[in-house]
Amino acid sequence: MKPLSRKNRIALALLLGGAVLIVLVLIARQLMGHLGETTASTARKLGDPIPVQVSRVQRGDIDEVLGAEGTLVESQSLTIQSEIAGLIREMPVQVGDSVERGGLLLALDPAVAEAGLVSAREQAASARTKLALNQKKLDRLRGLLRDGLITLDEVEKAELEVVEAQNTLANVQARLEQARHDRAATRIVAPAAGVITELVVEKGVAARPFADLLVLAVTEPIHFEFGINQEKIGAVREGQAIEIRLQAYPGRIFTGKLRLIKPVVDDKTRLAIVQAELANPGGELRPGMRGLATISNRASGLKVPAISIMSKRDNVAQVFVVDAQGMAQLREVKMGLQGGAFVEVLEGVAEGEQVVVVGQAGLQDKDKVRIGDEYAPK
Predict the structure, then answer these.
(1) β-strand 369-371 against 50-56: which pairing, if any?
(2) Which pTM value belongs to this model?
(3) pLDDT tens for each residue of 323-350
(4) At the top level of CATH, which class does the domain 86-109+186-216 belong to?
(5) Topology at the third CATH level for domain 66-76+218-298
(6) Is 38:50 a contact under the CB 8 Å cutoff?
């Protein structure tokens, strides 16, 4: 036989190597197939215990962090009105402007109000003078009455004049206070810090009493609104601390407190709307900014590995508990907090019991099981 050339020898070696590799792959698949046949259904047919791994119910701390995306919203929306009529002489704000509490929103022409104030002051001065004169007259007539020089009728008439002067002064004083108020009302200021979201009027037009002028979104304090799953409503409470990370300020954490948990759950999303309140003294937080809210909870109680939980719905789930006879019992449990690898269990299991964590997929209630290595979640 003619010896093979070097090129043919290399080709043959590659061919043989590929064949060996294929055989090894087929053997591996065959082995994996045999291993995969050790399922709950196969073991049940053969009358063998079903292999599972378990973990014991422990007592300890569970830290749960709830997170939800949300949006900053104004704490109030105030429609600003004028108490008096007047021509708008100043309007230094525009839509989107931030204003501090007490900042000027607009000013009306004060001419009419100032004239009314001057008139009211003059009337008050005149009424005070008239009252003083009538009182002086009454005092003189009372002296004459004691001396028997005049009749009682003259004194009583003077007393009525004093009462009338007192009533006149009271009415004039009320008008003076109203005139002072009207003069102050020509300057309309922000009742709270916020952002201008709408202008109804403009400079140069006449404002009517109690007609809308502009809309102010109050941002101090400001609210962060978000939704949480209905099964977690019991894990939050008003006054609870919250941390908020805003897209507008990467790396910063803003803190606040939950102020409102709305009582109605949305039919479509199954979310409950929650509001938190944040201080915003500098006005850097503005309505419409989006971010992530996180709420931390800690509980101490019974806990099981999260991978043992099956058929979870709301706060109720199922687990398999292995009894002393090696039988798997299907239990319904009530869940609490869920943090990391563990879930708090409020009802349904006892400390030290063994729950199935691996192999429960095809398991049925009352199946005999064979326990392998105990699972130790980290």
Answers:
(1) parallel
(2) 0.66
(3) 999 999 999 999 888 887 899 999 999 9
(4) mainly beta
(5) Elongation Factor Tu (Ef-tu); domain 3 (2.40.30)
(6) no
